[in-house]
Fold this protein.
Amino acid sequence: MEDELEITYFYDTCALLNVGGEAFKHPFIVSPVTLEELDHIKTSANKDEITKELQRNVSRLLKQNKGKYQVVSPTLYDDINSIREEFHVQETNDNLIIASVVYAIRTHMAENIVFCTDDINANLIASTVFDIPTVGSDAILGELEDYTGYKDVDLTDDELGELLSHPTENTFGCLPNQYLVIHDPNNIEVVDALKWTGAEFVQLQSKRFDSYHINKDDLDVRTLDIYQKCALDSMLTNQVTVMRGAAGTGKTWLGFSYLVWLLDTHQIEKIYVACNTVASKDSAQLGFYPGTKDEKVLGTNIGGILSDNLGDRIELESMIQKEQIELLPMCDARGRSLSKGYYAVYMTEAENMTVSLMQLLIQRLGENTKCILEGDNDQQLDRYAYYGYNNGMRRASEVLRGSNLYGEVKLPIIHRSTIAGLAQKMTERG
């Protein structure tokens, strides 16, 4: 049966940029029009640097992986154009690419060819006018591994006793600094949580927050859920911590409050707030922000996030003036060294970073620099440029997990409000 055949994807330009290296894991087909568009991106004044970075990456992979993909021959342009005319559509690059798909299907360049596009109009024309099967790049990227940083297990009292009496036995195959969240056999309540250090399972560390800027009643470690306690342990014991989770899970509140506590207790000298300010997906942009660098950054969502966690804007501006907090836009990060003192780097909405941008940030860190990256690379990506294998937060996790310097926790429980929890379902399907 056809649905048992391996799919061969025919990528348009945008989908190939979004899928990136994942495309080269299986044979695929592209149109010569896509190669022309890739070359045009390289010199275009209308394309942003992120798109050009993706183009360079894909072009490099195309050069390195010749033989792993097919290109519809440019000498067949007349045949492709005839197919376009057959379907009575205009001569545009998108329509020529779709006509190339039809040519590939008709000439049996591969079995079970499916057109992959992230362009809504191209998808509509391909599926309704040309009658060819289509998918978006999320169909390829949707199967990416979701590493949470912990394993949930159900144990009886006897099984828990056996685990605690043999702490050096890694029965569950945990990576170093991965957590084991232990539930009762009926999965009704959490019994305990342990961390595998690479040599043994240990209890979580915890701290009571006592500082000028943080209200202990607002941040009482005794009220944290078990996953937040794992995240706190990671921040206390690791140089780099990634916290992921939906809006309202407490990742920003917990991460930034922890660093302010380090600052107020003189364990660090300064907090660098790294940011790659991107307008929220599907939103209308406000355009030019007047003022200095700090005023521009504080005029974005970063200003609101920091002010909310410190109580008000005045306190935030005071800490910036005292050089306790420094705003670090990623456009200014190259050449900066954050290694000459006891510093901390904090980035909220870290899902909106490409691999090279995240590499640039992490390479700034010194031996005594703490780093907390938090965001939601499941649902809050604001550009296709940050999807799938192009996502810096995801790639950092892949490279750093298992290191004794790194911990990661995905926070699954929404605490903000009942309505915030219900709103989470708005983007769910099925």
Notes: The longest strand covers residues 190-196.
